[in-house]
Design goal:
The structure holds two protein chains of two kinds.
Chain A (H helix, E strand, L loop, with lengths): L7 H21 L17 H7 L5 H5 L5 E3 L5 E3 L12 H4 L17 E4 L5 H4 L5 H9 L3 E3 L5 E3 L9 H5 L16 E4 L2
Antiparallel strand pairs in A: 1-2, 3-6, 4-5
Chain B lengths: L7 H7 L10 H21 L9 E2 L6 E2 L1 H11 L4 H17 L2 H5 L3 H4 L14 H19 L3 H5 L1 H14 L4 H17 L3 H5 L1 H9 L5 E6 L9 H5 L20 H5 L5 E6 L3
Antiparallel strand pairs in B: 1-2, 3-4
Classes of the chains: A alpha+beta, B mainly alpha.
Amino acid sequence: MKSLLLTRRDFLALVGGATALGLSYLILQPQPAFASVLPPGALAPFELFRAACLRCGKCVAACSQHAIRQNNEGLPYVDGLGGWCDFCMKCIPVCPTFALRPIDPEIAKIGIAVIDRARCIPWTRSGCRLCYEKCIEIEQAIWLDDRQRPHVDEARCTGCGACVFVCPQSSVEGKSREFGKAIALRAS
Amino acid sequence: MDHNRIPIETIVHSMPKQKIKRIPWRNIQIVTMLGTLILIAVSAHWELGLGTFSSFGGGPFQIQCPLGVAQVMAASQEFIPALALAGLTGVLLTIILGRAFCGWICPGRWIFNRAPRTAPKPWATRPWIQSGIVAGVIGLSWVCHNPVFCIICPVGGVCRGAIGLSTGGSWLPSVGWLGAIIGVEWLSRRSWCRDLCPVGALLSRISVLNPFLKVRANAAKCQPCLACMKKCPEGINLGKNPDLSTCTKCLACQSACPRSGVEITLWNCK
């Protein structure tokens, strides 16, 4: 055993150090703004929802669109990157702690889409109108101006995230930025 | 005449050894644990609605983690009757099966659980310390308006990782929290499952009422060899009229006993 360069003490210290580094990254890493968009029917002030949520992941498992994900502390959020919320309300009855409460899907509103004009293709160059065409089918909340650039109608937008899902801008480029894609969800 | 001079040990040692058929409890438990984890991932992927260990089952029939229920109700400072009922189901299940969850289902047992021979002996005032841990976690939830232990809970974390893997989310946070708890266990030089885990502490306090499926030393076979205590992750000495409230029903004592003197009793309301 003497030929080992690494003693058990060193090994454990290495593991502990690596864990501490990883944890500090988890806590200190830049949190995108869209992480605070909660599933439909969430209790109204965010503090109340955070207190009532058990972090059990049942809403994540119930979502047939894979629109809900869990952040580092286990809270669910909708970002539109894995799928978009079609307000099927399957996540509400499965919530064991009633942190999600029944609402009318017709008036449900979980957030607002915000366009990053510096990265949006029609705002910088021209051509793309995928979010507009997707939203036409759903809420007609995105409209085009005379130069074919998209705008979000905040009164109509429900924050479903379908525009984010179809946005072709890479989510890799904007990882350290506020936006992953050229359009993102924000809490309303 | 010569027979009288042969010491008794020689006779015992020269006797043919009895072959003891042992049940591989450890392997069965690993399979059970992995099976339930796979069930959770599959249920999340195909939307079967089985839930997780934090909250198992759906619709009117739900089993809740009692500690999670207490924390959420303390954090939101609101009594939720349906949630309390589901939590009571968990308590009832613990009264029936004891701490079997810790030994058979919880993945933490295979991740942390420093071997009892390297950890120091359990605290003498363990029941009080365990009650203190539970009260502390619930009180902290009340103060912080946040179910604090649910965030770092390794059981919930592993479930979140399984759900993340099966639905396209991330499993890295779970690994981070598990690493943090391994760090806590190492720094404190205690066994997480035996001394520190709040869920285990609450389940052991409830298991005081558990009368079913208890291990017992057969008085005719038992010699004070302490083999069961050395193998028991909770440090229970079966030969000495033990307190079985912390028993996780892992049956390591039965596998360890050289005289096969450990019995499982179905009903024992001592």
